[in-house]
Specification:
heterodimer; A: 257 residues; alpha/beta; 6-stranded mixed beta sheet; 8 helices; 9 strands; 23% strand; B: 262 residues; mainly alpha; MetI-like fold; 2 domains; flat; binds adenosine-5'-triphosphate; binds magnesium ion
């Protein structure tokens, strides 16, 4: 059973009106458990919408979505998803630690276990020293790391991440990338990852999906056959540079069309 | 840090307000003396202060009675408002059914119920006053809280949905904390309303040991210093009640922009 199966998936906003937008159109995509799919494409090409369709935050206008063999609604109720949005969406009245504990609280985990788990996740994103701060006392990048810790805290079977590292500096970003790969190797999590960075997409993924706008559709899928496990050496690999070029050319074709 | 410079800094920032207050009292006193203004129009501040000394026990008894009535009404109306608002946020039909009437009621001068309350609860019962105050407080608190409960960001709702959080969990962990600043800003208005309600209700009769009756009686007897002393006392109680709400607010929502310290 594949972790993800999209067949002819489309999304039209405001159909029939003069504001009609075909945000996603005729998308076929499937992923095995543990795969890492990056979605890349120009702004407004429907990447976020695609993620929201998978995550049951918006219903498709056409086609079918299956997640772990279930409807997205079922998968959501089964708490299969961990989501990181384009903005951190932290609750401002909760301190950092309590923000990370939020999903665990909702899932009914006992307080001691919850606090242990959240502390471990904060250590992972190197924010353990800020556990007692409020979100507004953190920088944008730090807030985003809290959001990542929160999404990882309950070990979801599928992670949906929308430009999660966009607000981070290059070094932190690379460290977070390595951590994400480590967590995925440990937990076997399937990841769908939206990004604007070609090196990031190539370094992280098993496949890179290139999208074009109006209507938002998949134009090319690049298989990333880099050796596992990926490490800092991967970034120096000859093959890494070839794949960067492949993805860049795929994107250029989109821009030119 | 509670060191001296911090304290002095606070005094420094209060200086303009203190100056205006003291200056205002001096001008008031001066006007009364220079133009020989009669006591039934405006007594001098010193005369009012002197009355405080002679009438202390009567004033305090009346003040305590009114203050406790206002507080009881504020608590009762506040609690009812919170429960109604939570129900309105949770169930659409409660919201659609109750909210239009609440908004209509909120734009009427509810305090006109004061003379009627006597015939419902009896002239001497404190329940009449508590009832008027509670109704007066109920509507603004309820409406503001509902507004707060419903004004959460769509992205925050989606976050809760992504965890498959139930309606109650969303209400309790997202909507209610988000709405607490709305609740407190309504309670600050309600604190003032509660004293207004209590005193206006007392104008229409009831126990002598209440500020409203004290003021009407003394004014009727042309004892204007006493009446004015009661008016000053009512103002002080209003300010006190407001500040109690502010103190609680600081403790409950230290995270909010209106409260957070740098
Ligand atoms: N709720 C909505 N209502 C109407 N139109 C929408 C809505 N959400 C997205 N769209 C439209 O769908 C298209 C795709 O938007 P989407 O947010 O998926 O783009 P994106 O690829 O994530 O862009 P970016 O890289 O800038 O984040 C855009 O044209 C946008 O205007
Ligand atoms: Mg987007």
């Amino acid at each position: 059973m594949s972790a993800l199966a999209l067949r002819g998936v489309g999304k039209v906003f405001n159909p029939g009106s003069d504001q009609e937008v075909r945000a996603v159109h005729g998308v076929d995509l499937s992923a095995e458990r543990g795969e890492f799919i990056s979605v890349i494409g120009p702004s407004g090409c429907g990447k976020s919408t695609l993620l929201r369709l998978i995550g049951d935050l918006t219903p498709p206008s056409s086609g079918t979505v299956l997640v772990n063999g279930k409807t997205p609604a079922r998968a959501r109720l089964d708490r299969d998803y961990g989501m990181v949005f384009q903005s951190a969406t932290l609750l401002e009245w909760r301190r950092v630690q309590a923000n990370v504990e939020l999903p665990l609280e909702i899932m009914g985990m006992d307080a001691a276990e919850r606090s242990r788990q959240a502390a471990a996740m904060l250590e992972l994103v190197q924010l353990d020293r800020f556990a007692n701060h409020y979100p507004w006392q953190l920088s944008g990048g730090m807030q985003q790391r809290v959001a990542i810790a929160r999404a990882l805290a309950f070990k979801p079977s599928i992670l949906l991440m929308d430009e999660p590292f966009g607000a981070l500096d290059e070094m932190t970003r690379e460290r977070m990338q390595s951590e994400l790969l480590r967590i995925r190797a440990e937990t076997g999590t399937t990841v769908v990852f939206v990004t604007h960075s070609i090196p990031e997409a190539v370094f992280l993924s098993t496949r890179v999906v290139i999208m074009s706008p109006r209507p938002g559709t998949i134009t090319e899928v690049v298989d990333i056959d880099l050796p596992e496990p990926r490490s800092d050496d991967t970034r120096e690999d000859q093959r890494f540079f070839e794949l960067l070029t492949d993805v860049r050319e795929g994107l250029r074709a989109v821009e030119d069309s | 840090m509670t060191d001296r410079p911090e304290f002095l800094r606070k005094v420094y920032f209060r200086l303009p307000a203190i100056g205006i207050f003291v200056g205002g009292l001096i001008v008031w006193e001066g006007m009364v003396r220079i133009f020989d203004i009669k006591g039934f129009i405006l007594p001098a501040p010193t005369a009012i202060a002197a009355t405080f000394a002679t009438e202390t026990s009567d004033l305090l008894a009346a003040g305590a009675g009114t203050f406790s009535t206002a507080l009881a009404g504020l608590l009762l109306g506040g609690f009812l408002a919170v429960f109604t608002a939570l129900a309105a946020a949770r169930w659409r039909f409660v919201r659609d059914g109750a909210l239009p009437f609440a908004i209509a009621a909120n734009s009427t001068p509810i305090v006109v119920l004061a003379p009627i309350a006597n015939s419902w609860f009896g002239l001497r019962s404190p329940l009449g006053s508590i009832f008027v105050v509670a109704i007066l407080v109920f509507f603004p608190v309820m409406i503001n809280l509902v507004r707060g409960l419903l004004s959460v960001e769509a992205s925050e709702i989606e976050l809760m949905e992504s965890y498959a959080a139930g309606r109650l969990a969303t209400l309790w962990k997202l909507q209610f904390p988000h709405a607490t600043p709305y609740l407190f800003s309504a309670l600050k208005v309600a604190a003032a309303l509660s004293l207004i309600g209590a005193i206006v209700k007392e104008f229409f009769g009831g126990s002598q040991e209440r500020l409203g009756q004290y003021i009407t009686t003394k004014a009727g007897l042309l004892q204007f210093e006493e009446a004015w002393a009661a008016i000053v006392l009512a103002s002080l109680f209003g300010i006190a009640l407001y500040n109690i709400v502010v103190l609680i607010e600081r403790r409950v929502i230290p995270w909010h922009v209106s409260v957070r310290s740098a």
